[in-house]
Amino acid sequence: MAELTKIVIPVAGLGTRVLPASKVIPKEMLTVVDKPVIQYVIEEAVAAGFSEIILVTHPSKKSIEKHFERQAELEATLEAKGKIAQLESVCDILPADVTIATVFQDEPLGLGHAVLCAAPLVGNDDFAVSLPDVLIFHPDGDHALDLRNIVTAFKQNQAAQIMVEAVPDEQVSNYGIVDCGGTEFHPGESHDVLSMVEKPALGSAPSNQSIIGRYVLPARTMTLLKHTRPGAGGEIQLTDAINALIAELPVQANSMQGRTYDCGSKLGYLIANIKYGLEHPEIGAGLAAWLRQQAF
Ligand code: G1P
C-alpha cells in the first residue's frame, strides 16, 4: 500500500453560520485564542503524519494560504527587535518537508464536490479528508491522537475510516449518521458500517453516531464521487459517495477519544475560545480567575 501522505481540507465554504464575522475574513482564519482555526487543523494533520496538505479553496480566500507563507519583512523586524518568541511563532508553523497545495472550488456544490476538486492532486493515492470547522481536543495535549488512530486502523484493517461521536437526538439531523447495526461503540475502536445517511430526520436516523469530519479513504472514493448525484440539500455529498463505497470495500466508523469543538457556529466558536483559552499557558490562569469571579 502506498504511503498515506495526502490530506484534503475543504475551505471554500461561505461561513454563513458565523456572518458577519466571515464577510471579509474567511471563517477558517478566525482566531481561537491566538491562532486561526485552520492552523490548529493543519497542525493536527501534520502531527498525524500527513505531509501533503491540499486546500480546496476559493479565490476570495487567499489569506488562508498567505498565513502559511514566510513573511521576510515581518521576520526581519521581529529579529531586529529581539522578539524571538514571536519570531518563532510566525516562522515555525510548518516543518520544511510539509507542502500546501491549493485547488479552487468555484461553485458551492457541496462537500463531495469540494473533495472531487482535489482529484487531480490526489491522483490514484489513498487520502484523508479533514473538515476545518471542527477542532479536536485531547486532555493530554496530543490533539492528533484520533487522526493518527484512524490512519493506523485504515492500514491494519484495510478499511476506510470515518471518525464518529455520539450526539444528542435533537442534533442528529445536522450531521452524516452511520448505521453499524446497533454495535456498541467504545472510544478508539472501529466497527463495520452497514450504511450511512446525510442529515436524516430524527425518526429515520439509524443511530446517533455522527460523522465529525475526519476521514481516511481509499483512492476509489474519487471515482465514486464523480458519479455521485446531488443528495441532501441539493448538494453532492461525500456521505453518499462513501455509502456507495460500502458495496465494494470495507468501511468502518471509528469512535473518537477526544472532544470536538465546532468553530463553524457562533456558540461553538465562543466555547472553543474559552476551552483553548483555559488551556493556554500564557492566559489560562487569568481567564480561569476571571470566569470564577462572574456570577453565573
Ligand atoms: C458535513 C458532512 C456531514 C458531517 C459534518 C460534520 O456537513 O456532510 O456528514 O457530519 O460535515 O461537521 P456540513 O456541516 O458541511 O453541512
Structure description:
This protein has 296 residues and is an alpha/beta fold. It has one domain: Spore Coat Polysaccharide Biosynthesis Protein SpsA, Chain A (Alpha-Beta Complex), CATH 3.90.550. It is 33% helix and 22% strand. The protein has helices at 37-47, 62-67, 72-80, 84-91, 111-117, 119-122, 145-157, 220-226, 238-245, 266-279, 284-293; strands at 6-10, 31-32, 35-36, 52-57, 99-104, 127-130, 134-137, 160-166, 176-179, 190-192, 195-198, 209-217, 251-255, 259-262. Strands 5-4-1-6-12-8-13-10 form an eight-stranded mixed beta sheet, sandwiched between helices. β2 and β3 form a beta hairpin. α3 packs antiparallel against α4 (84-91). It is globular. The termini are far apart. The mean pLDDT is 95.
First-to-last CA distance: 54 Å
Low-confidence stretches: none
| Rough outline | globular
Largest sheet: 8 strands, mixed
User: Number of helical segments?
Assistant: 11
Q: What structural category arises from helix and sheet content?
A: alpha/beta
Calculate the mean pLDDT score and round it.
Answer: 95
Helicity level: 25-40%
CATH fold field value: Spore Coat Polysaccharide Biosynthesis Protein SpsA, Chain A
CATH class: Alpha Beta
Order of adjacent strands in the largest pleated sheet: 5-4-1-6-12-8-13-10
State the CATH superfamily name. Spore Coat Polysaccharide Biosynthesis Protein SpsA, Chain A
The total tally of domains equals 1
Small molecules in complex: 1-O-phosphono-alpha-D-glucopyranose
- Give the name of the CATH architecture: Alpha-Beta Complex
